[in-house]
Structure formats: C-alpha cells, structure tokens
Amino acid sequence: GAGVSQSPSNKVTEKGKDVELRCDPISGHTALYWYRQSLGQGLEFLIYFQGNSAPDKSGLPSDRFSAERTGGSVSTLTIQRTQQEDSAVYFCASSLRLGRGGDQPQHFGDGTRLSIL
Amino acid sequence: AQKITQTQPGMFVQEKEAVTLDCTYDTSDPSYGLFWYKQPSSGEMIFLIYQGSYDQQNATEGRYSLNFQKARKSANLVISASQLGDSAMYFCAMRAFQTGANNLFFGTGTRLTVIP
To answer: Which of A103, A106, A82, A110 is nearest to A95 (CA)?
Structure first.
C-alpha cells in the first residue's frame, strides 16, 4: 500500500513481557518517528530516525524502550518488561527529509493499540 | 521549550455551518511550522493543513483554512460548511526548526461534533 503500515493493530500482553511493534514507512520517506498516545491525550514523541544518522532518542521514557531501523526502511519499537503505564496507542509516522527552512508533513500509520494486563 | 494549548475540549457545530478550533503556541524559536491533524473515531491521524512561520498568507486546503496570527501566537483552524464526517478529534501541532527538534509537539486536542 501507499501509506505507513503498522503491525500488529492490537496487542494484549501480561505485565513483565517484552513486546515488539513494527512500522513500514512510505517508500522514499527518509524520516521516521515513533509517538505514543495515552487515553485522552495528544501524541507524545518517542524517537526519530533520519537516514543513516544517529537516532534522536530524547523522547524515550525509560531504558526499557528501544527502537531500531534496518536498512533505512522498516523500524521496530521494543518495550522490555512492560508495565501497565505502557498501555497506549503507539503511532509510527514518516516524512520526506526535514529541513531547517521549511517542513514536510508527517504521515501516520493507523497505530498499534497496546494493552498491558 | 515548545508548548501547544488547545483550550476547547469539545465543540459542537450545526451541519453546513463554519467552526473555529482554537490553538495557541509558545516557542522562542523564530522559525517554526504549525500543523493540524484530524483523528476520527477509527483512530488514524490525518494531516489537514500546514502553516510556516514565515508564510505571508494564511494556509488554505479545501474547506480548511488556518487563521494565523503570529503576534498573538495563535493558529486557529477554520472548517467551513461542516459535514457529518468532520466529527472527530482535532490536534494542533508544532515543530521548531532552529532548535533542531525533530518531532512535533501536540496539543491535547478538541473533539468536534457536527450536529445534523
């Protein structure tokens, strides 16, 4: 498809388990972002990848969260030893390369709804 | 630091009428971009409109327009001729360019309900 693809769409797991969320960005988009949305809130930035540059991890809430992007395309967000407060919808977005003189809209996937029991 | 404020948790509008959704922002960066996204009940985030801080004219995209008042630091979304399908959450977001921030900062959103 032409849009950002995320899987799974829903994930239910027990507290303490590890989870992996996958994102396949729009072809040709070099910038990739992960956000999360807790119930009733706006989106909160987690991590940003741009090409082969070192990722911007400034939004990751703890060292239980990590992400990688292989081959400049598909990305995986991993949450280790999940806690109940990790329950949220996790969105991936992609865009063309950001610039300092203007901007490119970020196009979002449909999100992964993560529920920690 | 950047901050986005949406003071209207919920708004109602009659079908075919226009509605304004408020957004104010705070940043010390002289160069920034402002975005509006729509999130229907199905959950996806849909990009609506973009305004750059140095753009001379207000952005328009079909029935959407952005009332950009730079001195007041406001970027209100105007939806004309509301349709039932416009019922959704609407998020205002900002990215500051010179600070090097890569991400968008989002407001808490406004839930718009269009009444038939």
So the answer is: A106
Q: Which amino acid, A86?
A: D
Q: Please, are residues B79 and B63 in contact by the beta-carbon 8 Å criterion?
A: yes
CA–CA separation, A96 and A105 (whole Å) = 8
Give percent above pLDDT 70 in chain B: 98
Q: Which residues of A touch B37 (CB under 8 A)?
A: 108
Q: Assign B100 a pLDDT band (cuts: 50, 70, 90).
A: low
**Which pLDDT tens digit goes with each residue over B7-19?**
999 999 999 999 9
Contact B44 A106 (CB under 8 A): no
Closest among A1, A4, A2 to A21, alpha carbons compared: A4
CB-based contact A43 B4, cutoff 8 Å = no
Closest chain A residue to B4 measured between Cα atoms? A42
Residue of A44, A94, A103 to mutate, interface with B, max B Cβ within 10 Å: A103
Distance of CA B31 to the CA centre of its chain: 18
| CA angle, B66 then B68 then B71, to 5° | 170
**Which of B42, B91, B97 is the closest to A100 by Cβ?**
B97
Buried b or exposed e, range A44-78, using 16+ CB within 10 angstroms: bbbbbbbeeeebbeebbeeeebebebeeeeebebe
pLDDT for A98: 64
For B108, which of A42, A56, A111 is closest by C-beta distance?
A42
Residue B51: pLDDT band by 50, 70, 90 thresholds?
A: very high
